[in-house]
């Protein structure tokens, strides 16, 4: 009996494997259930491998779909795998029954001794259990034939405790067949869907881009087999286009992906599938809508689909598919007449005029002048509502329904659709509309507008658009306004993809001159904004004057987005300057404004800045809420995921979980590398380095933050207020036993920060300088500086920075064995973090329990460095200072100084106490 085909779906199932093992240990039976492709077979294989490593006897049975129609086929396959020695002790009739079954599984059953066969199976299992523990594994139990099921049910009731049984089956509703096999009360363990992090890991493991993880997670519902199938389909579609897979591309539910989706949908009865098709065609399906559209039993049919884990029905009657690929597969498998009838029924049932027009358009496939005009009006309504993605879809529909003799109107609708798609970040729709524009006799202006839409929809992934930009520049020749628009995109690309603020500033200057020549004050303001942004990066004191000049021009409303407007850059500068109240006030004005425009990227940018403002202001709960909205928006709109994962990493690092923060940061790094986004690559690396520093992984933090330093140097970033990594790198260097290097870094950056008037940056540098002074033996100066720095952060109203400074103060006080001041500083830090909702930092500031001694818990950054650990181990094993120096290639003086620091950190006074402390730790 062949094993079924499967993909590597073991990612994310570590805890599940442990749960199965616990159930088998406690009950001797376990039932593993889940939909097709959930990863049950991989879990089973892991459990089997563990049992075999313990020298248990493992019997495996994995029937195929065809086996369920062959009587006793599975029983024959199971007995065929039993070692011959286990059959020697059987009585004659039992051996005969088994021999007949093994030789003639498909022969008539009338002449067989079925009682002897059942007793034989019991005796075989008992004989095996007498020698070694036995694990009986039944995978794909849903395909057991009825006769084998009866036989196994009888045998398993009489087996000794030495026989453990694991049954895995695909259950999409109804009672699992494994329950009667295993008996009442068997633990039923459901395979949960993968989270977005786990989907990202799965994709990377299979060589697929991590930046697709958010959308694939949404489309697959966390089903690993479906996720991989979708990832491969998307990669193949991109290869066919001779370009890389884009994060906003429509997910092609074809080939293997459609087969997986079909298997999932097979769990719903035929009548329920008709209701599901209507739900798939509707934009916002509800039970009442489906009833009005001709499905009177919608509630009962959806309940069946919900039991099959295909949909979730809300208390308000809303219907949501568990995997986004399911409605696509339903629509694709339905014929045109069925889809057209469904859209016609929905057109009569919906209460939104825009959706009614959309359904009417999708119910026909012939040109219709009046319908095309209706659709165009509906697209305009969507634009006013801020629903630019829907406007793009409707614009394409309007063009398709436009008769051929209205070529001018068709072209205008295509250009408008392209611009709507660019505005909403829908790269797939932008490419489709632009391809149609370029295939027609379009003017250079229309061709440029369409090409610019493709650039705008690309998000952070501008690195692969050189050819599009070159064509746009060529077609814009002779039109200063169009040339200015292209130059602006070039400026953005130089910053994001090339990491070159000088070239970006120069391109912006050219854009500004062209815009002024063409009388386009909006483009001129945006060009000045880019110049001001690059000037700030480069440490140009004149950047604020350039920004003021941009603010004096008319505010850009729709052409290129709020994220590129001087008003938004003013908010960013306020954030950099720690003017948090001013920044927050302006962002709260901008948020409803950008939501009205329908630009997903603009909304994301405002949410990103709100997250950063709330974090620095010590409001972690509010920051986390903004970060979640930003991540949801990114996935829903198909935006570049790198920035959203960075924002999520920072929110988690301050107010959630260091482990989750590290996961988000790593995904942000992967996505930014894939999209050649230098700006957010630096930011995600900074977030990861911060977590590594906080959790005591000093050597890793140094390596990560050095990458940030290299990237920032390559991008010619001078102003240290934009990304504040310098203090973290210095702290990591100190923890990694390199205080001299840290001191040099701090001195050089401090000079720049003081010269630019960046007081918050200077305070963060002083915190690191206090730790540096302590490491260099000047504890009194360190304490004085850290106390003063904590007060400065209080004045600046930066509570989390103050809390981190108090943690550093506690570390220094503990090193010089002043326990009372150390405890006071820890308590003060804990209070600050607790008020801010900074859960992981509150845990770091938890005081050691009384009597913990040398093994007491201290803040993670105070633990031994790798270099200190190597020395401590050598000394605790009896090495003298001279011997340790020789083995570690150090001077004796360095060993003595380092050993002093180790003693201070662990609060020990002798080598014997050091050995005890290391054993305790």
Structure description:
This protein is mainly alpha-helical. 66% of the residues lie in helices and 4% in strands. It is built from 46 helices and seven strands. The strands form two sheets. A five-stranded parallel beta sheet has the order 2-3-4-1-5, with helices on both faces. Strands 6-7 form a two-stranded antiparallel sheet. Strand 6 and strand 7 form a beta hairpin. Helix 22 runs antiparallel to helix 23, helix 28 runs antiparallel to helix 29 and helix 33 runs antiparallel to helix 34. The protein is flat and about 95 Å long. The N terminus is likely disordered.
Briefly summarize what is shown.
With 921 residues, this protein is mainly alpha-helical.
């Amino acid at each position: 009996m062949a094993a079924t085909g499967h993909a590597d779906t073991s990612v994310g199932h570590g805890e599940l494997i442990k749960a199965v093992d616990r159930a088998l240990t406690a009950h001797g039976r376990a039932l593993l259930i889940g939909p097709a492709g959930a990863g049950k077979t991989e879990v089973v294989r892991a459990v089997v491998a563990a049992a075999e490593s313990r020298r248990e006897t493992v019997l495996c049975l994995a029937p195929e779909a065809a086996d369920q129609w062959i009587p006793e086929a599975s029983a024959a396959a199971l007995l065929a795998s039993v070692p011959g020695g286990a059959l020697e002790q059987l009585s004659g009739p039992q051996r005969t029954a088994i021999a007949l079954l093994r030789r003639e599984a498909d022969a008539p059953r009338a002449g067989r001794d079925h009682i002897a066969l059942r007793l034989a199976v019991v005796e075989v299992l008992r004989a095996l259990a007498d020698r070694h523990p036995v694990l009986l594994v039944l995978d794909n139990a849903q395909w057991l034939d009825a006769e084998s099921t009866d036989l196994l049910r009888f045998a398993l009731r009489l087996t000794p405790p030495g026989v453990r049984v694991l049954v895995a089956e695909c259950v999409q509703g109804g009672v699992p067949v494994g329950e009667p096999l295993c008996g009442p009360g068997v633990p039923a363990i459901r395979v949960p869907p993968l989270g977005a992090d786990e989907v990202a890991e799965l994709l990377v493991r299979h060589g697929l881009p991590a930046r697709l993880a958010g959308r694939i997670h949404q489309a697959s519902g966390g089903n690993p087999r479906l996720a991989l199938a979708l990832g491969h389909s998307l990669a193949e579609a991109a290869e066919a286009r001779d370009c890389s897979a884009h994060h906003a591309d429509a997910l092609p539910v074809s080939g293997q992906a459609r087969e997986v989706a079909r298997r999932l949908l097979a769990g719903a009865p035929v009548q329920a599938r008709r209701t599901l098709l209507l739900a798939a065609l509707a934009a916002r399906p509800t039970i009442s809508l489906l009833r009005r559209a001709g499905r009177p039993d919608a509630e009962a049919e959806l309940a069946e689909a919900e039991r099959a884990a295909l949909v979730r029905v809300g208390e308000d009657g809303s219907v949501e598919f568990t995997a986004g690929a399911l409605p696509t597969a339903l629509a694709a498998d339905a014929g045109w007449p069925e889809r057209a009838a469904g859209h016609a029924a929905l057109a009569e049932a919906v209460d939104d005029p825009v959706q009614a027009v959309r359904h009417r358009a999708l119910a026909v496939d012939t040109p219709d002048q009046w319908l095309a005009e209706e659709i165009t009006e509906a697209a305009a309504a969507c634009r006013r509502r801020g629903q630019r993605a829907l406007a793009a879809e409707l614009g394409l529909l309007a063009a398709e329904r436009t008769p051929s003799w209205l070529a001018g109107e068709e072209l205008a609708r295509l250009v408008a659709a392209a611009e709507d798609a660019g505005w909403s970040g829908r790269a797939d729709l932008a490419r489709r509309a632009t391809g149609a524009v370029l295939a027609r006799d379009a003017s250079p202006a229309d061709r440029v507008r369409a090409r610019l839409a493709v650039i705008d929809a690309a998000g952070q992934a501008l690195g692969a658009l050189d050819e599009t930009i070159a064509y746009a520049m060529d077609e814009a020749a002779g039109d200063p306004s169009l040339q200015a628009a292209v130059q602006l995109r070039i400026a953005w690309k130089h910053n994001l993809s090339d990491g070159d603020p000088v070239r970006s500033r120069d391109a912006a200057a050219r854009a500004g001159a062209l815009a002024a020549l063409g009388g386009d004050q909006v483009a001129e303001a945006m060009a000045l904004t880019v110049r001001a942004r690059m000037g700030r990066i480069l440490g140009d004191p004149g950047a604020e004057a350039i920004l003021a000049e941009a603010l004096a021009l008319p505010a850009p409303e729709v052409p290129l987005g709020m994220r590129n407007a001087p008003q938004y850059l003013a908010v960013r500068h306020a954030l950099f300057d720690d003017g948090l109240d001013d920044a927050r006030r302006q962002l709260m004005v901008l948020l409803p404004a950008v939501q009205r425009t329908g630009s997903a990227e603009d909304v994301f940018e405002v949410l990103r800045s709100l997250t950063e403002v709330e974090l620095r202001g010590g409001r972690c709960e509010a920051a986390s809420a903004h970060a979640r909205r930003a991540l949801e928006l990114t996935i829903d709109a198909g935006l570049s995921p790198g920035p959203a994962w960075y924002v999520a990493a920072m929110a988690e690092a301050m107010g959630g979980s260091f482990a989750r923060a590290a996961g988000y940061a790593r995904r942000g790094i992967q996505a930014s590398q894939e999209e050649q986004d230098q700006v957010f690559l630096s930011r995600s690396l900074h977030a990861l380095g911060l977590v590594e520093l906080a959790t005591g992984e000093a050597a890793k933090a140094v390596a990560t933050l050095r990458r940030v330093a290299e990237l920032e140097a390559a991008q010619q970033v001078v102003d240290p207020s934009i990304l504040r990594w310098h203090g973290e790198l210095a702290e990591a260097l100190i923890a990694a036993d390199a205080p001299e290097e840290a001191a040099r870094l701090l001195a050089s950056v401090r000079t720049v920060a003081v010269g630019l008037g960046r007081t918050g940056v200077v305070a963060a540098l002083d915190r690191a300088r206090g730790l540096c002074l302590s490491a260099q033996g000047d504890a009194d100066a360190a304490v004085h500086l850290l106390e003063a720095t904590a007060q400065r952060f209080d004045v600046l109203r930066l509570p989390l920075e103050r809390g981190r400074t108090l943690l550093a103060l506690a570390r220094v006080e503990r090193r010089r064995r002043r326990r009372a001041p150390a405890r006071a500083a820890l308590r003060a830090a804990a209070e600050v973090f607790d008020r801010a909702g900074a859960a992981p930092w509150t845990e770091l500031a938890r005081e050691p329990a009384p009597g913990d001694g040398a093994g007491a818990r201290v803040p993670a950054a105070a633990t031994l460095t790798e270099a200190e650990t190597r020395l401590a181990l050598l000394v605790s094993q009896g090495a003298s200072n001279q011997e340790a120096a020789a083995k570690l290639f150090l001077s004796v003086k360095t060993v003595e100084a380092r050993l002093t620091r180790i003693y201070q950190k662990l609060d020990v006074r002798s080598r014997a106490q050091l050995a005890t402390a290391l054993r305790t730790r």
